[in-house]
Amino acid sequence: MKELVEFLARSIVEDPDAVEVEVEEGQDGDWVVYHLYVADNDMGKVIGKQGRIANAMRTLLKIAATRRDIRVSLDIGD
Amino acid sequence: MAGTEDDNDDDIREDDTESVETTGKNVEEAIDDALDELGLERHEVTIEVLAAGRAGLFGIGGEPARVRVSRVSFEDPEGEDVAFAQETLETMLGLLEIEATVTMRAPETPGDGVGLMKAVLDVHGEDLGVLIGRRGSSLSSLQYLLNLIVSRRFKHNKPFAVDVEGYRRRREEELEDMAFQAAERVRRTGKPVTLEPMPPNERRIVHLSLSKDPTVETASVGQGDARKVSIHTLR
Questions:
Q1: What is the pLDDT of residue B2?
Q2: What torsion do the CA atoms of B92, B122, B144, B205 make, to the nearest 10 degrees?
Q3: Whole-angstrom Cα distance, residue A60 to residue B144?
Q4: What is the mean pLDDT of the segment spanning B109-117?
Q5: From the list A55, A57, A67, which residue is nearest B130 (CB)?
Q6: Which of A46, A58, A69, B112 sits a CA distance of 20 to 30 A from B182?
Q7: What CATH number did the domain enclosing A30 receive?
């Protein structure tokens, strides 16, 4: 799932090299938070108007998470 | 069966267009008869409503519905952007750990986005309901992100439609049936009918399916997620 976030982000930003994804996992392995970092200029590119792009990414993450029976969330920036 | 470069204009291409006109008690029946006659399914044809028909009182003074149904043929889409879109979607599915294959075809119907979309990417596999989501919400996200990625490399391109196991086609047929039935009710009662709220692509299907019906008119009313199609008589 980390690879999914990386692939999506790198495919839509201007500066793919600046894309980083940090993974934060719950102790029981029942939840994961992905922290996505991109270049300042690219923040709009991964968030989108009214968060549309970020929400579409969350929807895809949810597809993967449902199959693994875990909860997942996506945070962008700090 | 795409034509080759050597195709001669004089060639007789019998299966290119076939068209029949049929009548029936109502539009639905006339269409079904036409499809039977052509041996085709709904998604392989375009439908023109020539006369909407009117039920008479006690079987007197009625008018049959008349439709023209024509077969349509399409060329397979090709090009660098098409190949890139297919590869990108396959990569996305791979990262979602979903086993599926992707095939490409030309848009054929309003639901495919004919005239709007470059091509349709069909996803085939088992147990893909999760890719569709509630009312197609997951499918919308998948299509949205795919087009975002493709448009980064190929600017000013028509977008691609994504379908999963024929979901969009089934939904389109549901919407057409709903539209025809509502139009029938509007004609019978003379009162306008307002359908449930729908996203823009679904409203477009309803508008188009009734655009050639001379007896009713459609309009979208309401704002945002609550926007819906209203149908009323033109007489």
A1: 46
A2: -170
A3: 11
A4: 84
A5: A67
A6: B112
A7: 3.30.300.20
Residue A32 belongs to what domain range?
2-76
pLDDT number for residue B156: 74
CB B42 within 8 A of CB B175: no
Q: Which of B199, B146, B122 is nearest to A53 (CA)?
A: B146
Total domains in chain A come to 1
Provide the chain A residues 24-53 that lie in CB contact (below 8 A) with chain B.
52-53
Is 50 exceeded by the pLDDT of residue B7? no
Q: Which residue of B has its CA nearest to A67?
A: B130
At B204 the three-state DSSP class reads helix
DSSP B136: G
Task: Say which of A12, A55, A63 has its CB closest to residue B96.
Answer: A63
Query: ipTM of the assembly?
Result: 0.94
Q: Least CB-CB distance to A59: which of B97, B98, B137?
A: B137
Partner-chain contact B145 A8, CB within 8 Å = yes
Residues 1-20 of A with CB under 8 A from B: 1, 3-4, 7-8, 11-12
CA distances from B204 to B65, B179, B191, B209 (A): 24, 11, 22, 8
Q: Which amino acid is at A15?
A: D
> Does B88 contact chain A (CB < 8 Å)?
yes
Amino acid letter, residue A56: A
Kindly report the CATH number that applies to the domain delimited by B80-165.
Answer: 3.30.300.20
Quickly state the pLDDT bin for B138 (edges 50, 70, 90). very high
CATH no., domain B14-73+169-233: 3.30.1370.50
Look at B95 and A4 and tell me if their CB atoms are within 8 Å: yes
Instruction: Supply the pTM of this predicted model.
Output: 0.73
Under-70 pLDDT residues of chain A: 78
Confirm whether B14-73+169-233 and B80-165 share one CATH topology: no
Region of poorest pLDDT, from B8-12, B130-134, B212-216: B8-12
Q: Where are the domains of chain B?
A: 14-73+169-233, 80-165
